């Protein structure tokens, strides 16, 4: 039942925020923050209590589940289940939701109620995606996610918001249709083979497929998820959407939407089609490495600071793709660490960059410079997250990237070596960004207020979480271990015994 | 006592945190007290640990302290654990001690700077990272310290960030060393994948057991670690960042870019000596890189005009000596030289800092001169440092350590006369540029009137370092003089002994004499050229002379080559692809849809006759199709 | 009685139809277009009558009567519109009438 509450709390919050009287924005913001805080507390409680492990058919390490009939005639159920992977991602969702709501305190002044409704609605859909284990339900949540995001970008975005929103919509909608096709294909093949028509994840997991069919169905899921993940060459919606979205929108996009793609790969694309995935892994890993390097070079090329941060996401999500397809638990654990750490560090960068460009009225890096003296706290935070995103040990990003590459090295040493070049390219763009903004002469004579109380609190929270992930990643790795090991039968033991 | 080991790196870290969190509200003196105090406490702890370690050695001559499991991943469990053995003990003691003196000096030197608190915060963080680096029990934790010091170096080089040149130098330092770091990471993957552990001792033991000498894996692992060391220690071909790194405040140059961080590469190779022993080719490469770097850098140091750049090239050259020692298997000689170098080079830097401060931020040595009388204390300190650098026989520490390296080059089984000759030539050049500096800066006529003289805190630091620059050599006296070598005895509990051919006392004494003479000859030439500036002028004006001068002034033009080969192509590539050529596909698709849209709009023009024509045309086509098919 | 072969009648209808069509496409004066449409309608009518005679069915003649009525009605409406339009704009040029879609 607690799983339903996880989705219901943001929904109730959205309702309350929506009906709050006009002109009483404070109440609306308060409701939103309270909803996220309650949900975060619920998640953390689950995390700490670590309920007794239930087992579902088809394997898995589920902590809790909720199962009701929904449309029985078609074999559709309202089936939610929570394992370690979902748990940490839901915690991330609520944390970032809280941060996004707090960050829009000053940022959003128009249509405040509708904005918060969208924010909460979005969060509810994302949590639903992380919990659903009925494929139809999953698809419903997946589609539900799209609408509020379209509004967030299209209404509160920057100058080219309509272009960006439209591009985002077309990319994701096209990809969702591919997924729907694959999903129905799987549904009918399973139904015909067994006589039981069901969308249940556990039941569909063992469906026997001919290699050709398996590959096509897998590709449908793969493309859908990889577009959300924004891997090269399907990343083009991301820079526009991230750049044009309001700060909270960028936080949601970078922190959650990309993760939803990664989650889909980990939860569905690979376990549902293990053979096809294994066959496809080299291509996927190639895409991962391409994303890492291509994104890094593109990030360095940008002059718009927000666009730069957006491209760093392409680079970082390449690590996730690489980790998911590296075929070892270590790499998968690394991928999850990258997801969490990137969610926090990049969101923080977006919040900082948003605060900065709101203060000086431009996102052009050429016009910044010497801001350290004017805003030391802001610059310090920017420094911390620039360092985190270049993979400095001691931050969560390093742990994730290291584990991913460690896993990849076993499979293909040259690939890992090429990916390790990103250590250099990441340093180039991160330092470039930080120094353009904070070092050098303050040629335009900016005098800007430093971080406000709320912003400083946001940064303090985010810095402590990144550092915590960096020096004690055990908290995450321990809770996700069982889930990840069951999702990815470890082939490394076979490799090491061969040695 | 040993179980308090974790406090040694934690204290500076705590200092960093307290300054960062409360620095804005603290007074300058409070900041300095905390920053210097924690490092002082750390040094005291290190001394206590050292005494305990030497007089009551723990079992196996090492002590390991595990704090917690860092990354509990499946099949991969690196820990946060510290290891104290003779090697890390020497490193820790030297680092904390030198860092304490340099911080004490900075408390006065940096006085009045607007970034006073920021400076001390980062210095403390640096010391903490450096201590983690040398105390790490496994490669991953070592890498944490390794990157930590790199980051602090970046921050401190760009400390005076308003000047974009400084920011550029900082960025360059970080990115160039990051090339080596990337190689290091790959080395870690290789070691873990094939040996199943990242614990240094365990990995070394397994490697020695499982890998034959010269096997591909061993060579790869050693070569990758060499690349890492080369980056951090500013050796060929990744040395270009060090001269530019002098943009940072002088104490930073003294601590990070002379005494500690640049020698991290030396520490890494010494620590991972098992891998290098398994890969003789790579070890030979270490020696060759060291020899070539020490010569190239010494030549470059001969012509520099910026006092700090002379010292920077000198550092490069001296670290080259350490590499030379490592390359022939003289592990403890390298560490001995590291220790002595830490003393005399930070002394030189701090002396230079005092001069620079007195002359109001003047860096050009030709604007200095005749400071002997005006700044007597600084003069004596600088002179002692230079003498030690020039390896003035018998009285200075530099003599003993450099002599040991040269001797090892000669006697080691993997040594050769060429390496020895390179070292000897380097010794000559070193003495020459060191005393060129002394003569130009402190002798001759007074060119700029000095202002502020160093006060008590700066003076104390200079005095203590000067004392050690002279006396540190006596803990390792060559056997042909007095058989007293506690340092190498201590170090050999954790580092392999040099496998040398015995050459007899007479040869040894002869080699020492030659080495001493080379240094003296260098000093003489420096004096000679100083007294005859016309000669120098004429030499420089010859075409060959001016060409070499320019080449050396630019550090053999590596910067220019790298700029053309790597930097500009990368920037160009980025600029060309700024709008992302893959997006072109999407934009083309969008544009195609749009033009279709306009095309179809064009048919809807309200012209009745065109409509009619279209209808007719359509009818004709349909009828034709029906008839024909 | 001389019977005209059906092919000839159909051919004539086709020629008449083409002439009308050419008129519709080529003329710019809307009155002539209207006239040409009448010609086309009559061509169709001839074809119907001929076909009705060939198969001895009344349907062809019924259809012709139908076309006749319709043509009359169409002309009445069409002329009325054209008259109004002419009063409004002073032109009968069909190419100037592009505003219909607006």
Task: Summarize the topology.
The complex is a heterotrimer of chains A (499), B (629) and C (102).
Chain A: H1 2-19, H2 25-49, E1 62-71, E2 76-83, H3 84-107, H4 112-131, H5 135-156, H6 161-194, H7 201-205, H8 211-229, H9 237-244, H10 247-272, H11 274-301, H12 305-325, H13 329-360, H14 371-374, H15 376-389, H16 396-411, H17 413-420, H18 422-438, H19 453-471, H20 474-487, H21 492-498
Antiparallel strand pairs in A: 1-2
Helix pairs in contact in A: 1-2, 1-4, 2-3, 2-4, 3-4, 3-10, 3-13, 3-20, 4-5, 4-10, 5-6, 6-8, 6-9, 8-10, 8-11, 9-10, 9-12, 10-11, 10-12, 10-13, 11-12, 11-18, 12-13, 12-16, 12-18, 13-15, 13-16, 13-19, 13-20, 15-18, 15-19, 16-17, 16-19
Chain B: H1 7-22, H2 28-55, E1 62-69, E2 79-85, H3 86-109, H4 116-135, H5 139-157, H6 164-195, H7 200-210, H8 216-232, H9 241-244, H10 250-259, H11 264-271, H12 273-278, H13 280-303, H14 307-327, H15 331-358, H16 371-374, H17 376-389, H18 397-411, H19 417-442, H20 456-471, H21 486-491, H22 504-531, H23 533-541, H24 543-553, H25 558-576, H26 581-603, H27 608-628
Antiparallel strand pairs in B: 1-2
Helix pairs in contact in B: 1-2, 1-4, 2-3, 2-4, 3-4, 3-10, 3-15, 3-20, 4-5, 5-6, 5-10, 6-8, 8-11, 8-13, 10-15, 13-14, 13-19, 13-24, 14-15, 14-18, 14-19, 15-17, 15-18, 15-20, 17-19, 17-20, 18-19, 18-22, 19-22
Chain C: H1 6-26, H2 30-55, H3 59-89
Helix pairs in contact in C: 1-2, 2-3
Structure write-up:
The complex is a heterotrimer of chains A (499), B (629) and C (102). Helix content of chain A is 76%, strand content 4%. Chain A has helices spanning 2-19, 25-49, 84-107, 112-131, 135-156, 161-194, 201-205, 211-229, 237-244, 247-272, 274-301, 305-325, 329-360, 371-374, 376-389, 396-411, 413-420, 422-438, 453-471, 474-487, 492-498; strands at residues 62-71, 76-83. Chain B is mainly alpha-helical. Among the domains of chain B are: 290-531, no CATH class; 579-628. Helices cover 73% and strands 2% of the residues of chain B. Chain B has a two-stranded antiparallel ribbon with strand order 1-2. In chain B, helix 14 (307-327) packs parallel to helix 18 (397-411), helix 15 packs antiparallel against helix 18 (397-411) and helix 18 runs antiparallel to helix 19 (417-442). The relative contact order of chain B is 0.08. Chain C is an all-alpha fold and 102 residues long. Chain C has a domain at 31-89: Helix Hairpins (Orthogonal Bundle). Chain C contains 3 helices and no strands. The longest helix of chain C has 31 residues, at 59-89. The radius of gyration of chain C is 17 Å and the shape is elongated. The mean pLDDT of chain C is 86. At the B-C interface, helix 27 of B face helix 1 of C.
